[in-house]
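I trust your eye. Have a critical look at both lines of this record:
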Amino acid sequence: LALTSLPDPKILALVEKVSKENPDEAVQGQAAMAIAMLLKGLGEDRDIMVRRLTRLREAIIKANDVKVGDVTVAKLAEDEIFVIQNLAKGRTAPDIVGRDSAGKPFKFSLLKSKVTVLVFWHSNMRDAERGLGLLRKLHKQHGHRGMELIGVTSDPLEVLRNLRSKGTIPWRNFSDVSGRIAREYRVRTLPIVYVLNENREIQFIGGPGTFVDLTVEALLAE
């Protein structure tokens, strides 16, 4: 599983070889989990999704109780299956109910926007200054055109209010100090951006930057 973090295209072939040739069923299951994670980077075509689901189910069967850090392979696989079934492109993004950084009740599904950008972030995330800068630019370019930018962060309220007063985060934010919303969306890395259409259907998932801008521009032009 550690091999999945390496940017080497040969890793997939290597892990597939382990899956086929290692006699230990638990190792086969871990390899199946790794293959499913590596396939994630190849897109969301139907054939790739089917291959991923097959490997994830194999991982649960063969290595369900094997620990990876503080979680089991089964938990990792179940989360990935949830993502494929509920958080992939074309799916309706789960509703969110909570409070914003001003302490006011807030429900995601009440937004009536042509385009919504949902971003999970934290003030101490990797490359925070760059990521927040890209989001501010997006908000400035498209906020007046009907795009809603909604943040979700576990930063304390006092931090959020301070950043808001400085103009660092001019968009509305869910206060997610407990991490409940992030867990609902199976968030593992920050920042992660979801671009949604007027029906809350997911059109793009990834980091802030050019592809987010292009997706938003295309949706606003429709």
Notes: Residues 46-63 form the longest helix (18 residues).
